[in-house]
Amino acid sequence: MDYQHIRFEVADGVGTVTFNRPEKMNALTYDSYGEFEHLTRTVGENGDVKVLVVRGEGDHFCAGGDVHTIIGDLLPKGAHDHYRFTQMTGACVRNLREMPQPAIAEVRGLAVGAGSVIALACDLRVMADDAKFGFIFTKVGLTGADMGAAYLLPRIVGLGHASELLLFGDTIKADECYRIGLANKVVSVGQLPGVVEDMAGRLAKGPHLAQEMTKRLMQRELDQDFASAMETETLGQALLLMGEDHEEFYRSWCDKRIAKWSGR
After folding, report:
1. First vs last Cα of the chain: how many Å apart?
2. What DSSP character marks residue 79?
3. What's the whole-model pTM score?
4. What is the mean pLDDT of residues 139-146?
5. Rounded to an integer, what distance in angstroms lies between the CA atom of residue 138 and that of residue 170?
């Protein structure tokens, strides 16, 4: 599919999707939502993509849904249209969690509303020191439990921090995001692309099947009791113990050389 409202590029195993409306702080439209949902739903079938980077063009990550083209358009419509819209937005987050590849959010400027939850749904978040997160849904008269935020956020920052962020809807700066565990790294604006490129490159060159299984098991175990989680992990590890990559590790260790991962 040729995307017209987002930009998607692949190089050296790294897929990069860019929200491309810098003049509107990369606010999402119906079209860009739809294309992002399609991309995240189908990228798992793209063998050239080992890791996905999500970013915004220009000075901001994503300012959420466009006020006029989405909110203004939806207000006079009925329940069916509203439900179809929230199904699509929720699918964007579900796809990010279910896709096999790890995803990295490269966040500068504002990540608010839908932008904050899309970044939240990525496996790793690297923020510029000028960046801010804002789960601003209550400030526009909507529930803070949107697009999976009320499920994911407490599991990342804890229930207390999540309650404060979702109930008040305030924006918080990068250093506070790092303090509560929402950001994995905070770097200067100038360093941001290079740091993300380095992280993505390391993942792209790594043992892909091991990374995929790790992501899948962490996702599945979120709601399992300990005994079930242990069983899930024993089955997953038993499978990978028979994999080609694990055998390659052993051979490379014996030969004192760098492993050549096949993802099998």
Report:
1. 28
2. H
3. 0.95
4. 94
5. 9
